[in-house]
Design goal:
By secondary structure, the chain is an alpha+beta fold. Helix content is 43%, strand content 21%. It has five helices and eight strands. A hairpin with a 2-residue loop joins strand 7 (137-138) and strand 8. The structure holds zinc ion.
Amino acid sequence: MVEGSRGAFLASRLLFRLIMSSAVDVGPGYKPSSGWVYRRYPRVVEGVLARSVRLVDKVEIVSVDDYGFEARVASEEDLKVQYSVRVYVSPIDPMVEFECTCPYGERRFNPCKHVTASILALLNKYVEDLKISGDKLEEGFYRDPEERRLIEAIYEGLNKAAYIKARSSSKLA
Ligand SMILES: [Zn+2]
């Protein structure tokens, strides 16, 4: 399979899985991590979602195969530091899995901004007419309503997949 069609195939599977996951009822204990903005008294600051969108242009897609992709994202704090992101789309398990080498990614189940940005960058690259960009962001408000809904569904799908994984691993512990 040539590189372009493999990427398009993976992007459509990834998007389908995440949108399905976003609609799963995981029960009342579920709390997604911060979205576009959140309140850190006394200020309102950008959440993971807004910071992910700002990072989209800084993502480098390293490799794509039938089971996922790898990306590199420069740290916002130190441009010399790069984090590695790996996203798995299993042929069997419907839940998308991911990992990132950043301090937050190693500590938490929730998707960090690098994972979320990498997925948005992959979709930008392979889904026609999609141009998710930090330029469309104004104080946590994303100007394109269709892309905004899509970004929110992707993030919700990632958070729910992470929540299900965390819950099943704590049952095993
Ligand atoms: Zn990360």
